[in-house]
Amino acid sequence: MFIIGELINGMYSNIGRAIKEKNIAIIQKCALQQINAGADALDVNCGPASRQPISDIQWLVKAIQEITDVPLCIDSSKPQVIESGLQIMKNKAIINSTTADPEKLEVLVPLAKKYNARLIGLTISAKGIPQNKDQRLELAAAIVANCSEQGFPIENLFLDPIVMPLNVAQAQIKDILETINEFKIISEPSPKSIVGLSNISQGTLFRSLINRTFLTMALNFGLDAAILDPTDKDLLDAAITAELILNKQIYCDSYLKAYKKKEG
Ligand code: THG
């Protein structure tokens, strides 16, 4: 599984404060902590409270690429903010995200092509978040068709079914898991799948337990990537063990240590 660290997000109060005060050391420490814990890439989101998201995202990207060359996943609903991050990016880029809205796809797919970036497509439209599997798949197919028409390689597209909190949308979670599996049959080559894992446990107790249980289930439905907290050791151990059980890692008695060494 491709792991994108979620912790550089202005939604977290320590990061929100660091962005406001331009405290570069806090951002760099958070980046290294996530990479050392096993992150393959880092999500970068200046948060809902940022009043100058264009300059804030550029400041974050500059701070992080001073100390690492892992791919950065520019997380914003505003295409201008995404482009400002891409303009100064030296690391590989992932655009997080487009929706299925034609106006957004017309701007963000060409940007992904221009900057050679991977692209995350959310199964959401101007009508909002779908309520069932068929609506999710319909929007996913529209994103895939639009990317194909514009000549964007589908292997570089991640589809996100949008994970809802368990305490808000319990009846939809099984549908979301099945959607992940069915993304694969939309086209050949297949698009990849991704989730924002921590959404599942927002507002619940036992967050870590719920996150890791959902992640192991999603892996069984073929999940390729997740935005998650890589410093949650139990979560990463559960993911590695799930991949072992699914025959994606080779068994040995010290498989947890072996996997981490290989990654580190
Ligand atoms: N899909 C895609 N991108 C995403 C999401 C997604 N980016 C944002 C988000 N969802 C993934 N990242 C987070 C980061 C933090 C939390 C959830 C998802 C989180 N934060 C605490 C909370 O809200 O309770 C904040 C705690 C604090 O303030 O310290 O849970 O789905 N493509």
Explain this structure.
With 264 residues, the protein is α/β, with parallel strands linked by helices. The chain folds into two domains: 1-65, no CATH class; 92-231, Dihydropteroate synthase-like (TIM Barrel). The chain has ten helices and eight strands. The chain has an eight-stranded parallel beta barrel, surrounded by six helices. Helix 3 (53-65) packs parallel to helix 4 (79-87). The radius of gyration is 18 Å and the shape is globular. The model has no long low-confidence stretch (mean pLDDT 96). Bound molecules: (6S)-5,6,7,8-tetrahydrofolate.
Q: What would CATH call the class of the largest domain? A: Alpha Beta
Strand order of the largest sheet: 1-2-3-4-5-6-7-8
The total of helices stands at 10
Q: Identify the CATH architecture of the largest domain.
A: Alpha-Beta Barrel
Count of individual domains: 2
Overall 3D geometry? globular
Quaternary structure state of the chains depicted: single chain
CATH homology-level superfamily of the largest domain: Dihydropteroate synthase-like
What is the arithmetic mean of pLDDT? 96
Cα gyration radius (Å): 18 Å
Largest sheet: 8 strands, parallel, barrel
Write down the CATH topology of the largest domain: TIM Barrel
What sequence of helices (H) and strands (E) makes up the elements?
Answer: EHHEHEHEHEHEHEHEHH
**Relative strand content:** 5-15%
| First-to-last CA distance | 15 Å
What small-molecule ligands were found?
(6S)-5,6,7,8-tetrahydrofolate
State the total count of DSSP E strands: 8
Uncertain runs with pLDDT below 50, 5 residues or more? none
Alpha-beta classification: alpha/beta
Helix content: 40-55%
